[in-house]
Amino acid sequence: QGHERDKNHIKKELGDCLWMIAEACDALDISMTEVAIMNIIKLKTRFPEGFSKERSLNRDKDDI
């Protein structure tokens, strides 16, 4: 928000996010690979021709 992007800082923050996701998966006995595959399938279904702002804004109410 008006500041230059600091890639090293962003990498550290993304690492924190990744750590928390790994911890959540471990606590719930869910594979991170399974989560990633499910997300890819969801996005390919939602955006079959690639990302579209229009399709993003006008999704079905049950599309999470």
UniProtKB/TrEMBL annotation:
Transmembrane segments: none annotated. GO terms for molecular function: hydrolase activity. The keyword Hydrolase applies. Keywords: Hydrolase. Pfam families: MazG. Residues 4-51 form the NTP pyrophosphohydrolase MazG-like domain. The keyword Coiled coil does not apply. This is MazG nucleotide pyrophosphohydrolase. It comes from human gut metagenome.
